[in-house]
Design a protein that fits this description.
The complex is a heterodimer of chains A (242) and B (956).
Chain A (H helix, E strand, L loop, with lengths): L36 H7 L8 E5 L3 E9 L8 E2 L5 E2 L7 E4 L2 E7 L2 E6 L4 H16 L8 E7 L4 E7 L3 H6 L16 E6 L3 E7 L5 E7 L3 H17 L10
Antiparallel strand pairs in A: 1-9, 2-7, 2-8, 3-4, 5-6, 6-7, 9-12, 10-11, 11-12
Chain B lengths: L12 E10 L2 E7 L3 H7 L6 E2 L6 E2 L12 E5 L13 E5 L10 E4 L17 E13 L3 H12 L4 E4 L15 E2 L2 E2 H13 L4 E4 L2 E7 L3 E7 L8 E13 L3 E3 L12 E3 H11 L6 E6 L3 H12 L2 E7 L6 H9 L4 E3 L1 E9 L2 E9 L8 E4 L2 E5 L2 E3 L2 H5 L3 E5 L4 E5 L5 E3 L9 H18 L38 E3 L4 E2 H9 L5 H8 L12 H12 L3 H4 L13 H5 L16 H6 L3 E5 L2 E6 L7 H14 L2 E4 L4 E6 L3 H8 L12 E7 L5 E11 L2 E6 L4 H15 L6 E4 L4 E7 L3 H8 L15 E6 L2 E6 L8 E7 L3 H11 L6 E2 L2 H10 L47 E8 L11 E4 L15 E9 L4 E9 L8 E6 L2 E8 L14
Parallel strand pairs in B: 1-7, 8-9, 8-15, 9-12, 15-28, 17-24, 18-19, 18-24, 19-20, 33-43
Antiparallel strand pairs in B: 1-2, 3-4, 5-6, 5-7, 10-11, 13-14, 14-15, 16-25, 21-22, 22-23, 26-27, 29-30, 31-32, 33-39, 34-37, 34-38, 35-36, 36-37, 39-42, 40-41, 41-42, 44-47, 44-49, 45-46, 45-48, 46-47, 48-49
Classes of the chains: A alpha+beta (242), B alpha+beta (956).
Pfam families (chain A): SoxG (PF04268)
Organism (chain A): Streptomyces gossypii
InterPro entries (chain A): SoxG, TrmE/GcvT-like
């Protein structure tokens, strides 16, 4: 089960994994790709020209909406320790410790925190909602909504020198470091229309893919299919893009 | 063997011989050959016969412009990897790279798919690429363009259709800076290969250029490696088209004999493949390039019998060189015909250009090389909206006012001299990069103004119309279309080059007019007596070269074809042998057959369990939308036809939403979680459409409403526990949760711990039975499901699927949006006035007041009970009146409506159906007929509720 130990964007596999929260219920909880962990581990190829794919299960995720009545951007700083500022720049993420805020839209963010931290994150979001609410009806009143979506999507981490090539087969986004830097994110369609959120991982050549749980198997099938030529180590195509 | 192969030279690997079969004969060639070059080396001259005239034809060109040499490729059935090798029904021998064991048969214009081997078995996939500068074509201009662009640090993609880069330089003996040009090519490629941001793609043809510099390119994999290919989808900020030019043919009688060949093609066969396509050649030309070809061929050992130049004056440079080699030149002369023997050319018939067209002499030859000038390959340029103008001196269409985002360089814009092409490419590459703010410091200069020597007037027609039979002057050899066909088209009144193209079919074959297009336009203009520039040219459309459908499909086949959505319980459903039904992109269990059960038996068993005991269903697929904000209740009040403002926290309500035209769009149950928070459920297939619909109204019509919507469909897994014993099962699962009707009434929801899991329980029933829907985190879905089934085992809890759900809900007359409705049905048509508020406004309300939506003869939802209780009416069957007259008198029979749902009911012990029937509520008690092929079935019209009309069962 080492492959399903919950790890986090940023801290990810290098840091010691946070303690596993207690299994809920007699039969245990299941992440959407838990049954494919071994398959994912076998499919990759470590090393310089390799690529690896893993599920990062059970991340705590909240969808956060904030809008000022006047329509102005209502980005704020969330009172975690250390604090986590919401990114204002479209298509970027802000990280703080093992937490991450992902820009989804002018008034929408995804807050990602370690597994088992839903209560803490919920409390922090409630605090920021109450702090900025102000008297109802004023122009500068900020309306906030937050919703837990931890189980709504799961996360795949794809890494290695070939990670970009694997993604380029299924995703039209330009993932070159010049265009998609270390703090980049994008919502896009993968393969034949699965909606995903793509986030640059802290390590170079690494990407986090947030995919809705119901699409996880389909997206995984595509990624494994795209990985096959690199995992085998001998590409049938002579033309290799750098 | 290899009777026409030179002893040395060429880019073939003589140490690597290959054996292949053509039309049943075994030949040898070398690594680096094309099928065409290997056949020419083996002395094969007549390749096939033409499509309709049955004339012998030989290899005419050396690349994608080849009109004649079509082959089908077949895997060797005895080869160990035969299954992996694709059959190729039709391709050009001139672009087919030779491999050991290749088996080809010549085609007469048409390919044939092998019935036993349908499909393309190679692996095809796709790759997206992004770059600053895309350079299409790696000839002299493309290479310099890529070099200068790459030197600025730009991300460059350079692609070329050939197996190696170099373009025209591969087939000539040109020099660059006093060194052989191919040395320069090698140096340039090494430099590009060392650039970290440059991608080099060979065997890759840009087949289409679309809006926003989106270029689609097809990469081929060698057939010997199993075939297949990769579809590159390239988004380029700037493009340089260095696509080169194709040589033009000449028109004269019998210009299609084997042995007639483009001069540049013969030059390529000699230089690149070490093959001489003949022994003694006559060269017919109207431009300088044919001299370079003739001289290189002469140096390679081909006897040049004569050069026939339509121009009155031979440029002194070329005249001197011909004199050095004792090559006769006939200036001011043209070829007006050819003689043939045994199918192939034996002599060229010559005449003075200004004469009466009568041949004045004949020159013996077995090779008649023609060069009518060069057509820039402007296909990609014009596909992407670029314009062209007709250049009178070059006699061709050249790019005009190119868009700076898409430059054209080198021969593709009409340049002919190597030095000019090199300079032009360098300038284009640098300009493209500098547009993007990238610079390498020095800006290459484009070539100076160049005045080409004009081609002789009236090209391509000979001066005298009597010069040879127009019916033997082939404009398009693939289509066997001649000058006579053009004359006939014009004689028939056609004035547009597009009409002439379609009438004669010129330019519609596999090469899409690469050799014939400009010639046809010029010939049409000549027959019409108008300038070519005035006539214009035909439109180029993608793809530039044929693309296999298998390549466009790529990996999106089988299970990768379309997204498949599954619930957290999917593994259980699979293990239990569920038969699945596609609902939108979801896989939902339709029923769970036990060994030996068919669908009817399984559904009957599952229905009985739900009506008599307890049954459970995976309802995780229902769309769920979290709706928050101070105006959430007002928003729902406007969206749903029913009222939601007064819904109490802890309760839920069924709602119907309509589109603005008043037609039912979706339905579902919405829970009020807090004063300012609701959770809406939608139908499974409509979840995304409903969220889009809500966002559309919030963003475009009601931005002042303080409401946020978030999809939480997969956040929750849901299990419906249904049946008279449901309460007993739930009592053991959730001992802390009061379940009696007083504490937990119908249409209430409660948060509770169920099976030790944090859960939300709602008393919602889609079956009419006592039912609880239990929702937990998606992670806990499987645990909940297993706990429900374990706990309910005592009561014999039975998992059921969508088919049973459909029967149960239909027995109660509950509609399924999209099955019992079709976008033309109002809530009133469904008899659901009770769900439509009369005291508030909502989307679609005004439309309900239109005369059309209150017509008494609208189609109403009613029940049908077939007279024969075993008769299952097919869904979609049309209903007609009970007739009295003769059958003939009743045609055409007006349809009263159709059956929307039809099932066998365990509870009723008979079949029943729901139907939309014109004026249906007024027909209740009457009879309608269902036409089923050659018989007619009678059914009684009833209320659309068949079971428990009092609704007493939902409280258990």
């Amino acid at each position: 089960m080492a492959d399903t130990v919950a790890t986090l964007p940023g801290a990810l596999t290098r840091a010691a994994p946070p303690p596993e929260p207690p299994a809920a219920g007699p039969h245990g909880r299941h992440s959407p790709l838990q049954h494919r962990a071994d398959e994912l581990a076998r499919a990759g190829r470590p090393g310089r020209s390799g690529v690896e794919l893993r599920e990062v299960p059970f991340l705590t995720q909240f969808n956060l909406r904030r809008r000022q009545r006047s329509g102005h951007n209502a980005a704020a700083t969330l009172g975690f320790t250390p604090p986590l500022a919401l990114p204002r720049t479209p298509g970027t993420v802000r990280r703080s410790g093992d937490r991450m805020a992902v820009w989804l839209g002018p008034d929408e963010w995804l807050i990602v925190t370690p597994p088992g931290t839903a209560a803490e994150t919920g409390n922090t979001l409630r605090a920021v909602a109450e702090a900025s609410a102000g008297p109802d009806g004023e122009a500068d009143t900020v309306y906030t909504a937050y919703t837990e979506v931890s189980a709504h999507s799961t996360t795949l981490r794809i890494s290695g020198a070939r990670a970009r090539d694997v993604l380029r087969k299924v995703c039209p986004i330009d993932l070159h470091p010049r265009a998609f830097g270390g703090d980049a994110c994008a919502q896009t369609l993968l393969a034949r229309g699965a909606r995903v959120l793509l986030v640059a991982d802290r390590e170079p050549d690494g990407f986090l893919l947030f995919v809705r749980a119901s699409f996880a198997d389909y997206v995984t099938d595509w990624l494994l299919d795209s990985m096959a030529e690199y995992a085998a180590g001998d590409s049938p195509f002579k033309n290799e893009e750098r | 063997m290899n009777s026409h192969r030179l002893r040395t030279g060429g880019r073939i690997d003589r140490a690597h011989p290959l054996t292949f079969t053509f039309d049943g004969t075994v030949h040898t060639g070398y690594q680096g050959d094309t099928l065409a070059s290997a056949l020419l080396a083996n002395g094969v001259r007549t390749f096939t016969t033409s499509l309709t005239h049955g004339r012998p034809r030989g290899i005419y060109a050396a690349g994608v412009d080849e009109p004649n040499a079509l082959v089908g490729l077949h895997p060797d059935p005895h080869a160990p990897d035969a299954a992996a090798r694709p059959a190729e029904p039709m391709t050009q021998a001139t672009v087919t790279e030779l491999y050991d064991g290749l088996r080809a048969t010549s085609l007469r214009g048409k390919g044939r798919l092998e019935a036993g081997r349908p499909g393309d078995h190679g692996r095809h996939d796709a790759m997206h690429a992004h770059c600053d500068v895309l350079v299409v074509g790696a000839g002299p201009a493309g290479l310099t363009a890529a070099r200068t662009a790459a030197s600025t640090g730009a991300r460059v993609v350079l692609l070329d259709e050939q197996p190696e880069m170099g373009g025209s330089l591969l087939g000539t003996r040109e020099h660059i800076a006093d060194r052989p040009a191919l040395e320069w090519v090698r140096h340039a490629l090494a430099e590009l290969a060392g650039r970290a941001e440059t991608t080099l793609l060979t065997r890759t043809t840009a087949v289409g250029c679309y809006d926003h510099n989106y270029v689609v390119a097809a990469e081929r994999r060698l057939p010997a490696a199993g075939g297949g290919g990769r579809l590159w989808q390239i988004r380029a900020r700037r493009i340089v088209f260095a696509t080169g030019a194709h040589e033009r043919p000449l028109l004269f009688a019998d210009n299609d004999r084997p042995g007639v060949m483009l001069a540049g093609a013969a030059r390529t066969y000699a230089n690149r493949y070490g093959t001489l396509p003949g022994r003694r050649a006559v060269v017919a030309a109207n431009n300088d390039s044919a001299y370079a070809a003739a001289l290189e061929l002469a140096d390679a050992g081909l006897e040049i019998a004569r050069i026939v130049d339509a121009r009155d004056h031979v440029p002194p440079y070329w005249a001197a060189r011909c004199a050095d080699r004792h090559i006769d030149v006939s200036a001011g002369h043209v070829v007006v015909g050819s003689r043939g023997g045994d199918g192939t050319v034996t002599a060229a018939l010559l005449a003075a250009r200004e004469g009466d067209g009568t041949a004045s002499s004949a020159a013996d030859c077995d090779l008649l090389l023609v060069s009518g000038g060069w057509n820039p390959a402007v296909q990609l340029h014009t596909q992407s909206g670029g314009r062209t103008r007709y250049d009178e001196r070059l006699c061709c269409h050249v790019p005009h006012e190119p868009d700076p985002r898409r430059r054209v360089a080198g021969a593709a814009r009409g340049l002919a001299r190597l030095g000019d092409c090199l300079a032009d490419g360098a300038a284009a590459g640098a300009d493209a990069a500098s547009d993007l703010g990238l610079s390498a410091g020095q800006t290459p200069q484009p070539p100076g103004a160049w005045e080409p020597a004009p081609l002789p007037p009236l090209w391509p027609l000979p001066a005298c119309p009597a010069a040879g039979d127009p019916a033997a002057q082939y404009v398009d050899m693939q289509r066997d279309a001649t000058l006579a066909d053009i004359e006939r088209a014009v004689g028939g009144g056609m004035r547009s080059v597009e009409h002439v193209k379609r009438y004669t079919t010129i330019g519609t074959a596999h090469d899409q007019g690469r050799t014939s297009g400009v010639t046809a336009a010029a010939a049409t203009a000549g027959v019409l007596g108008v300038p070519v520039a005035e006539l214009g040219t035909t439109t180029n459309r993608p793809p530039y070269t044929p693309v296999p459908f298998a390549l466009l499909a790529g990996r999106a086949r089988g299970r990768l074809h379309d997204p498949v959505r599954t619930t957290p319980l999917h593994a259980w459903h699979l293990a239990r042998g569920a038969v699945f039904e596609n609902v939108g992109q979801w896989k939902r269990p339709r029923y769970y057959p036990r060994p030996g059960e068919d669908m009817a038996t399984a559904v009957d068993r599952e229905c009985r369990a739900a009506r008599e005991g307890v049954a459970a269903m995976d309802v995780s697929t229902l769309g769920k939308i979290d709706i928050q904000g101070p105006d959430a209740a007002e928003f729902l009040n406007r969206v749903y036809t029913g009222g939601f403002a007064k819904l109490r926290v802890g309760s839920c309500r069924y709602g119907v939403m309509c589109t603005a035209d008043g037609m039912v769009f979706d339905d579902g149950v919405t829970m009020r979680l807090a004063e300012d928070r609701f959770q809406m459920s939608t139908t499974t297939g409509n979840a995304a459409a409903v969220l889009d619909w809500l966002e559309e109204w919030l963003q475009t019509e009601w931005p002042q409403l303080r409401v946020f919507c978030t999809s939480v469909t997969e956040q929750w897994a849901g299990v419906a526990v249904v049946g008279p014993r449901a309460r007993a099962v739930l009592a053991r699962l959730a001992p802390q949760l009061p379940l009696e009707n007083g504490d937990f009434p119908f249409m209430a929801w409660r948060d509770a711990e169920v099976a030790g899991l944090p859960a939300r329980v709602a008393r919602i029933s889609f079956s009419g039975e006592l039912a609880f829907e239990v929702y937990v985190s998606g992670w806990d879905g499987a645990a909940l499901w297993e706990a429900v089934l374990e706990t309910g085992a005592v009561e014999g809890i039975t998992p059921y699927g969508t088919e049973t759900m459909h029967v149960l809900r239909a027995e109660k007359g509950y509609v399924i949006v999209g099955q019992d409705t079709d976008g033309s049905v109002t809530p009133q048509d469904l008899g659901m006035d009770w769900a439509v508020s009369t005291r508030k406004d909502f989307i679609g309300r005004r439309s309900h007041r239109r005369p059309d939506t209150s017509r008494p003869d609208r189609k109403h939802l009613v029940g049908l009970l077939p007279w024969d209780t075993g008769e299952l009416l097919p869904e979609g069957s049309h209903l007609v009146c009970a007739g009295s007259g003769e059958p003939e008198a009743r045609t055409p029979v007006p349809s009263l409506g159709h059956v929307t749902s039809s099932y066998r009911s365990a509870a009723l012990g008979r079949t029943f159906a729901l139907a939309l029937v014109r004026g249906g509520r007024d027909r209740i008690g009457g009879t309608v007929h269902v036409a089923l092929g050659d018989r007619t079935v009678a059914a009684q019209v009833t209320e659309p509720v068949f079971y428990d009309r009092e609704g007493s069962r939902r409280d258990g």
